[in-house]
Amino acid sequence: MINIKISEFKELTAYMKKNYGINLTEKKVLIEGRLSNMIMEKGFSNFSDYLKFVFKDTSGNEISILINKLTTNHTYFMREADHFKYFRDTVVPYLEENSKNKDLRIWSAGCSSGEEPYTLAMIIKDYFGNQKDMWNTKILATDISKKVLDEAKNGVYSGEAVNTIPKYWLLNYFNKIDGENYEICEEIRNEIIYRDFNLMTEIFPFKKKFHVIFCRNVMIYFEPKTKVELINKFYDITEPGGYLFIGHSESIDKNETKYDYIMPAVYRKG
Ligand SMILES: C[S@@+](CC[C@H](N)C(=O)[O-])C[C@H]1O[C@@H](n2cnc3c(N)ncnc32)[C@H](O)[C@@H]1O
Hints:
The chain is of the alpha/beta class. It has helices spanning 6-20, 28-41, 47-56, 61-70, 81-98, 115-128, 146-154, 167-173, 186-189, 224-236, and strands at 106-109, 139-143, 156-158, 174-176, 181-184, 192-196, 210-215, 238-246, 260-263, 266-268. The strands form two sheets. It has a seven-stranded mixed beta sheet. β9 and β10 form a beta hairpin. α5 crosses α6. The protein starts with 5 loop residues before the first helix and ends with a strand. The model has no long low-confidence stretch (mean pLDDT 97). S-adenosylmethionine is lined by residues 20-22, 71-75, 79, 110, 112, 116, 143-145, 148, 198-200, 216-218, 247.
């Protein structure tokens, strides 16, 4: 194990906060635990030399590896399941009724390994059934970790990981690929557009506003100011009548947002 010096710790945590919003100032042990072996494998004996090497690497590969290591990507199917129920029973019917062009624009921001966007796609497929082809319901799913984006695109989950989803989803939307693993079917996979995207990007580059944004369990690692700024940016790119879903532990102070509170961790643009 390589111990990180205070100056190195300050440099790395400042970099992560400034560029990705992630606050690791209380996470010395986590940083040492996640990076030490890799730093040694790369032939360095201290954090300073490793960080110099990362910041000099113009290919972006080393930053990418660092981000893969320092992001927390824990997720699972049916996480905060009441959100999916509300999405199915209230949000999608509202959007169907009020859509002008039969397009639903949904963004899973901080999608990790794909469980959240695939769940949304399965709900939409169930809802529209054989009318689905008449709708454009592609879901944008973004993350800063290329590692989890690759896992998401791969769409392979263990039997244990899919344990909590309805059995008919397993039958209809997954293929069993060996004794243990399930692969999301082509039809659902094609509903998701995966992109590497940093939520700290100053001006969001989207041409059209979203009807629904899921950004759950991402802002827990952000400072309050960063979180408020991000929520304001989400607000600006939400369609009127559209929804924002955040994680249950990430509530927004009502004085700090123009969104209306709907239910725990669900907000709406009036
Ligand atoms: C804990 S996972 C949440 C996954 C899923 N939304 C859920 O609720 O289970 C948080 C994800 O946010 C991503 N993330 C953290 N900071 C980010 C940023 N600045 N831009 C984009 N994604 C970020 C991480 O890489 C990680 O995969």
